[in-house]
Design goal:
The protein is α/β, with parallel strands linked by helices and 819 residues long. The chain has 3 domains: 12-72 and 94-121, no CATH class; 74-89 and 124-377 and 444-457 and 471-475, Rossmann fold; 480-803, Rossmann fold, CATH 3.40.50. Helices cover 48% and strands 15% of the residues. It has 33 helices and 22 strands. The strands form 5 sheets. It has a 9-stranded mixed sheet, sandwiched between helices. Strands 19-18-17-20-21-22 form a 6-stranded parallel sheet, sandwiched between helices. Its EC number is 2.4.1.1.
Length: 819
């Protein structure tokens, strides 16, 4: 059958958006897509029917957005990210389509509750934490501010693990989010690309011409596209999230099967399925490292082939690539895309090397999210060369070009050359992916003002000297639709009633709330909404854990990936010290406090998993001690995800942002909490610094060493043992942990964990303890003056509008993408 290309064919009529039309659509989907009568339909049937009816409304805008971009030849942004933590999509989509009232009215006619049905939607397991959630916020804001964009990632079957807690320990289980299908995605069978690994490179000599190089791979598989529409606020634009699934070229090797090797016959299928099965496979062994590198190349290559195909079809001329295409690497994971684009331009499209490098660097941009050297990624040269022999040749060619040029720069000595090189020669030779991303991009940005300056002075010091205009700052933001309007409807309603709707389109209009911060009536209503949000979280804790918590107590929350630099350990130790004080001084008026933790530890990160166990061990002891009189409770909520965050963040009174100064790139949880009226207790790290400038230092509680002081303490060889022994509360708390007070079944369980604080305390837990404990007592003082607390909470919400991802994306579009 020939392809239909008649542009004059009539378009389908847009779907009706009134309650009656929506009800008809939902019933039609229930009948003809789900195959159920209303009499026998179960809640999951209604979920699918409603989702499909909403999706139809999205498609109308999606196709119009795509046509508009194609017709006006707009520059497209392509956002490459190994994670997209998108969360549930139903309520978000309905809200951005501005159909919430109509949908609720339609469902009310059928006796169906949207609130109950929406909770059945699984969270897409496509991310780990802040990096993936930022990518999701950015995709929504790209559509909101009308920038044509594709997000590219992997369609993980299980994604990051589902976390359960067994006897206090983290247990990793598969997250089967795709078990019952995904109503939001479209399988694009025509968008498939071959992805190759291994093999050799042949040189092709053609008389009088430059030799060509031909990669002869030993492994081949197929990347298939699945598209999810991403709706911007008020459906101004709908962009595309394209995720890649791996399939074998030969699903079954019949010769092996017929010979009786039934397992070997499925070898190709197993390899492909493994590639997109799990996000961040444990990389403590060589097999895990190889799988992760394969994943990064798989989605980068598929995405670039797709981008070049689209560009050539529409514009033809590859020299226009930087004018029509902006490719953005979200952290170092996709950095192999730099050399893959070089390979595609040179080997497939016949572009000369220097021209290809010019096109590549003008097309790519790179966001760095961490100063931790291990997170910049480097791969052993033998592994890299075995999987990508042609790419290794190009890495060396690029490196030669860079280093020969760098040698001509004044002040570039041998040490600088070693640091600039794409190959780390110290010990086992490794390919430095952070350097590749930096050198292959025209823009390299940090994600907070502090982080950006530290990049220049630390991990990219010599590269910054070589390219002093390349590094710039783009402070992170969050989408206010998900993180205020949807997760906190009570507060949103109060704000709309009090200052109007302008903030829904421009969150900086929240500044008008400043005038109401000292209004007693507004304070009372603001506090009541917070209380109701705390009741909701209390119910969640009761349902999941069987633990009763009092919504009248202060809810002190730390939710983020479990890592030593994020210092959940500091928070737990201070809780133990507070526990001792409450027992020792029952005559004092202590503030009732519930400390809530949530987050996942990487499967191979022993100390992080030990910290989770410690939190649960401490909770078991404190929560069951009658001497505490309910004044302190510790709760660890398992399987932290977007949906859990949407309940916890609006309920928080106190937001714990206590990372070691100089180690958190930005943070976005800090922004979400403050926007929802929580006070921040934190170090001057990441975006906390800019939050202090916007919110006002008087409306936060800042403590601890600065980044400069941390660096100096490390350089001077600070003495944590002396610090610990000089602090009575700290030394008693550490002694209790190390001696087995909280681990009666295994008294030595935490000996090494606590010993590390005495020996080196790299993350300055001991160094900051006394300041942290004093800051917590300052928090108690503010809490006891509830009028003062409410004023500060309201000012946090009022002054957080600048931290919208809409603002961030506009800066990217203006300064980096020129889109």
């Amino acid at each position: 059958m020939s392809k239909v290309t008649n542009p004059d064919l009539p378009l389908p009529a847009p779907r009706a958006n009134d309650a009656q039309g929506l009800a008809a659509s939902i019933l039609e989907k229930l009948t003809y897509e789900v195959g159920k009568d209303t009499i026998v339909a179960r809640p999951h049937d209604w979920l699918r029917a409603i989702s499909l009816a909403v999706r139809d409304r999205i498609i109308d805008n999606w196709m119009e957005s795509t046509r508009r971009t194609y017709e006006d030849g707009s520059k497209r942004v392509y956002y490459l990210s190994l994670e997209f933590l998108i969360g549930r999509l139903l309520r978000d989509s309905i809200s951005n389509l501005e159909l919430m009232e109509e949908i609720n009215e339609a469902l009310e006619q059928m006796g169906v509750s949207l609130v109950e049905i929406a909770q059945l939607e699984p969270d897409a397991a496509l991310g780990n934490g802040g990096l993936g959630r930022l990518a999701a916020c950015f995709m929504e804001s790209l559509a909101t501010v009308d920038v044509p964009a594709y997000g590219y990632g992997i369609r993980y079957v299980n994604g990051l693990f589902r976390q359960e807690i067994a006897d206090g320990w983290q247990v990793e289980l598969p997250e089967n989010w795709l078990a019952h299908g995904n109503p939001w995605e479209f399988h694009r069978r025509e968008s498939t690309y071959e992805i190759n690994f291994g093999g050799k490179v042949d040189i092709i000599e053609e008389g009088g011409k430059e030799p060509r190089y031909e990669w002869k791979p030993s492994e081949r598989m197929i990347a298939e596209a699945y598209d999810t529409p991403v709706v911007g606020w008020r459906a101004k634009r709908v962009n595309t999230l394209r995720l890649w699934s791996a399939d074998p070229i030969d699903p079954i090797l019949l010769d092996k099967f017929n010979a009786g090797d039934h397992i070997g016959a499925l070898e190709e299928s197993t390899k492909a399925e493994t590639l997109t099965r799990v996000l961040y496979p444990a990389d403590a062994n060589e097999a895990g490292q190889e799988l992760r590198l394969r994943q990064e190349y798989f989605f980068s290559s598929a995405s670039l082939q797709d981008i070049l195909r689209r560009h050539v079809e529409q514009f033809g001329d590859l020299s226009l690539l930087p004018e029509k295409v902006a490719i953005h690497m979200n952290d170092t994971h996709p950095s192999i895309a730099v050399v893959e684009l070089m390979r595609l331009l040179i080997d497939i499209h016949g572009v000369e090397f220097d021209t290809a490098w010019d096109l590549t660097t003008r097309t790519f941009a790179y966001t760095n999210h961490t100063l931790l050297p291990e997170a910049l990624e480097s791969w052993p040269v033998p592994l890299f060369e075995r999987l990508f022999p042609r790419h290794m040749q190009l890495v060396y060619a690029i490196n030669a070009k860079i280093l020969l040029s760098a040698r001509k720069e004044a002040g570039t000595d041998d040490d600088a050359i070693r640091q600039i090189s794409l190959i780390d020669e110290g010990g086992q030779r490794r390919v430095r992916m952070g350097n590749l991303a930096f050198l292959g991009s025209h823009s390299v940005n940090g994600v907070s003002a502090l982080h950006t300056e530290l990049m220049k002075d630390t991990v990219f010091y010599n590269l910054h000297r070589l390219h002093p205009d390349r590094i710039n700052n783009k402070t992170n933001g969050i989408t206010p639709r998900r993180w205020l309007k949807e997760c906190n409807p009570g507060l949103t309603g109060l704000i709309r009633e009090s200052i109007g709707d302008a903030f829904l389109d421009d969150t900086e209009k929240l500044q008008a709330l400043n005038d109401l911060a000292e209004d007693s009536s507004f304070q009372e209503r603001f506090a009541e909404i917070k209380y109701q949000n705390k009741v909701k979280l209390s119910n969640l804790v009761g349902e999941r854990l069987g633990t009763r918590i009092d919504p009248a107590a202060m809810f002190d929350i730390q939710i983020k990936r479990i890592h030593e630099y994020k210092r959940q350990l500091l928070n737990i130790i201070e809780a133990i010290a507070l526990y001792d004080q409450i027992r020792s001084h029952p005559e004092m008026e202590w503030v009732p406090r519930v400390k809530l933790f949530a987050g996942k530890a990487a499967p191979s990160y022993h100390n992080a998993k030990l910290i989770i166990k410690l939190a649960n061990d401490v909770a078991r002891v404190i929560n069951n001690d009658p001497a505490v009189r309910g004044l302190l409770k510790i709760v660890f909520i398992p399987n932290y995800n977007v949906s859990t965050a949407e309940v916890m963040i609006p309920a928080a009174d106190l937001s714990e942002q206590i990372s070691t100064a100089g180690m958190e790139a930005s943070g976005t949880g800090n922004m979400k909490f403050a926007l929802n009226g929580a006070l921040t207790i934190g170090t001057l790290d990441g975006a906390n610094v800019e939050m202090r400038d916007w919110v006002g230092e008087e409306n936060m509680v800042i403590f601890g060493l600065t980044a400069e002081e941390v660096e100096k303490a490390r350089a001077d060889g600070h003495n944590p043992r002396q610090i610990i022994e000089s602090s009575k509360e700290l030394s008693q708390a550490l002694s209790a942990i190390a001696s087995g007070v909280f681990s009666h079944d295994d008294p030595g369980r935490y000996t090494d964990l606590i010993g590390g604080l005495y020996d080196h305390d790299w993350f300055m837990v001991a160094a900051d303890f006394d300041a942290f404990a004093a800051a917590q007592r300052e928090v108690d003082t503010i809490w006891n003056d509830r009028t003062l607390w409410n004023v500060k909470a309201i000012r946090n919400t009022a002054r957080m509008g600048w931290f919208s991802s809409d603002r961030t994306i506009r800066e990217y579009a203006r300064d980096i993408w020129r889109a």
